[in-house]
Amino acid sequence: FVLAVPVPVFAEQPESRTVLVGSSVSFSASLLAPEGHVTYQWQKDTANINDNATADDPTLTIAPVELDDAGAYRCVITDESAGKAVFITEEAILNVGGGPGTPVAG
Fold it and tell me: How far apart are CA 70 and CA 51, in angstroms?
């Protein structure tokens, strides 16, 4: 008996960014051909982000950005129709700067 595990094919993955404090930033993720209902769980530094505004959303928006928002972001996508197959995007690094002469956090 061989169990076929779906190969993740991402249509979009989050990309690393450098932004200033007070600005906004968005990360997006999606599968190329999901088989059914898809859920999204965004994570920062591998910990779930439990914000109602980002739950089950393919786009994570942070506004306004603060220095402590710097970190590694990724999305865990679950395809409910593919035997609850779980796909994890590459990490996107968010670097945050405070303005001229301020070191960049990240």
Answer: 17
